[in-house]
Amino acid sequence: MTVYLDVIWALNFLFDCLLLCLAAFILKRRVKIWRIAAGGFIGSLIILLYFTPAAIYSGHPLSKMGFSVLMVLASFGYKRLRFFLSALMALYFSTFLIGGALMGTHYFFQSGSGAVQAFLSSASEGFGDPVSWLFVFLGFPLAWHFSRSRLENHEMAKIKYEQTVFVEISVNNETFELKGLIDSGNQLYDPLSRHPVMFVSVKYLLQELPKELALIASFPDGIIQGEKSVPPKWESRLRIIPCAVVGQEHQLILAVKPEYVLIRQSEKNFRTSKVLVSFTAQELSSDGSYECIVHPKLLAGIPEGERVPAS
Question: What is annotated as the active site (predicted)?
Fold first, then answer.
């Protein structure tokens, strides 16, 4: 059997570098390219041991552990034990994630007996692999890209979950309970009262809303321009607020002054009446994970139950 050592070493070096990059992504650490290359080079040296008198030790778990430790030290350095161990675990997690994806995909397209025979073949032959080099060469970058994108999406979903709150809004004795997303980018205020503005989608509640509120949510421009009207008890709560929109010089939005807005975050409740609510019939979240966008200032006050009574 002909073994192209330079090709095997180059692939191993490249894959080790990619694994270290994925580990750095998981850890959210900025690592210089030369450190990644140094770690990948150290990891690829284990291939060379297979062709030396020390080949008997190259496959030993302690040898692999030693190379992993050196790879992490070269790429991430050592600040303290916890810092080092987290980097080492991230490297192993990346390795198992990519390796599992490749092996699972390979055996998925084989029959049961073929998979077993391939496994036995790989166990008995040093470089006779059950997964072709072409499959590895093409599949590894794809598995790496897929794993990174899945981890990124999972992190975004986690952040979104942590920023999700329960919102209760009361307007003219009508109460609504919604899921809200805290948006730090929402910095819209009423220029007169300086009250923060939050946005609420009632797309799936139009049939349950009072007809006046449904009209406000569905035809805000018509009300602003005087083409449509609402009863006085609703009109007295309306506010017209200028809003800057990307690609436009200015825009006017219609907002309602509620009796109160109650926000539940973890075990804390924030209640305020100093807020304006802009209702819309449009959908705010494509996946339905929230129905309203909460202004961050609404959570800047003192939660209920923690207020010091006036003396």
Answer: 183
Name which of 10, 248, 5, 230 is nearest 127 in CA terms: 5
Model confidence pTM above 0.85: no
173 and 38 housed in the same domain: no
How many domains would you assign to the chain? Answer: 2
Which residue type is seen at 30?
Answer: R
**244 membership: H or E segment, kind and range:** strand 238-245
User: Rounded CA gap, 205 and 217, in Å?
Assistant: 11
In the chain, which ranges are continuous DSSP H helix? 5-27, 33-49, 55-58, 61-76, 81-108, 112-124, 133-162, 211-218, 220-224, 232-235
The pair of structure tokens assigned to 245 is 């929109």
Residue (of 264, 265, 297) closest to 195 by Cα position: 297
Q: How buried is 160 (Cβ within 10 angstroms: 0-12 exposed, 13-18 middle, 19+ buried)?
A: middle
Q: What are 263's two structure tokens?
A: 């926000």
| Domain annotation covers residue 35 | yes
Residues labelled catalytic = 183
The predicted-structure confidence for 189-241, as pLDDT tens digits, reads as follows 998 999 999 999 988 888 888 888 889 999 988 998 888 888 888 889 999 99
Q: Which of 131, 127, 124 is nearest to 107 (CA)?
A: 131
pLDDT reported for residue 12: 82
Is 135 found in the same domain as 88?
A: yes
In the block, tokens 């309306």 appear at 238
